[in-house]
Write a structure and sequence with these properties.
Layout lengths: L2 H8 L4 E3 L7 E7 L6 H18 L5 E2 L2 E9 L4 H13 L5 E3 L4 H14 L2 E4 L16 E3 L4 H12 L5 E7 L2 H14 L5 E8 L7 H11 L6 E6 L6 H6 L8 E5 L17 E4 L9 H14 L5 H20 L5 H8 L3 E4 L2 E5 L6 E2 L2 E7 L8 E8 L11
Parallel strand pairs: 1-4, 2-4, 2-5, 5-6, 6-7, 8-9, 8-10, 10-11
Antiparallel strand pairs: 3-4, 12-16, 13-14, 14-15, 16-17
Pfam families: Peripla_BP_6 (PF13458)
Keywords: Amino-acid transport, Signal, Transport
Organism: Allosediminivita pacifica
Amino acid sequence: MSTTKILGAAVAAFALTGTAALADITIAHVYGKTGALEAYAEQSHIGLMLGLEYATDGTMEIDGEPVTVIEKDTQLDPATARAVLAEAYGDDGAQIAVGPVSSGVALAMLPVAQEYERLLIVEPAVADSITGESWNRYIFRTGRNSSQDAISNAVALGGEGVTIATLAQDYAFGRDGVAAFKEALEGTGATLAHEEYVPTDTTDFTAAAERIFNAMEGVKGEKKLFIIWAGGGNPMGKINAMDPSRFGIEIATGGNILAALTAYKELPGLEGATYYYYEIPDNEVNDWLVTQHQERYDSPPDFFTAGGMAAGIAVVEAIRKAGGAEDTEALIEAMEGMEWETPKGTMRFRPEDHQALQSMYHFRTEVQEGRDYGVPVLVRELGIDDMDIPIRN
């Protein structure tokens, strides 16, 4: 059953249409419904809808005003994304937009929010530049950024005498991620010896892996290959099949969606840091999300479901604080420094760049009976005060 049908059955009072119905509050979800990141997009949308439901106690009203969500498909194309976001603001009257999935697409959308002087809550695109050099004051991000990924993974993987190579996709997500990771490694005692970038649609990693092996072959001490990846291709599984252990190299990576964790089962003991895994956070919001998602979809919530829910709750909290959705300046004032509860616990919008500060989780993979994937088991929660996230704008 489609996401729209399921949610329509679950929340009959909520208007979900391709164009805005008559409503006081209109929220546009502008995201890659089709394309290579479709799985991420679906999770994000489910989470957004559940977040709105949770924060409004199922009424889908904010202070008596009904909410309409309109969906716009970026098709993972920057030009299309700009056009449909402008359509959402200009033609459909959306006061707030949420999305997209891709960092490259998000960067194309930022100037549109500024042009229309309307808010864009970025979820889940990751690149630092979104709340960094390309940022404007109409942009808030509930998703984590590359620095949060990088610093948490540097804490998990770094140490005296450790040498690390990286493999990443050759676009904003990958390059920003490696740059932040390199910076975060400083002071951990670890050394970054080699950077490898490949096209986003790569499926054959033989040449890239050989370059990494050659760069690491003569290095003494502990050696790790840190992989930053989104979407298909399975670089971790394919490189693991090439037996990097013959060069003394251990594979490491951050967290991912449940489907991608199947590759982690082949690497018990693998360490990294993750944004979310449904069994890790211990709070009332996550308990509700896990219970409701299991009942409605016969599966636990996934990586980007939690992020979408955080965005939905943030929208409701911001509108309540601002006394409505019409005054963008009032919304900005309400959101700067705002704290709210999410499936990951407390998040806080930093006033300087509107980046949501949040916990990350150092994990170690375990193989557990009855699970067809490697389970990320918590080693340590890295809270807001445990990570010094740079301000880059």
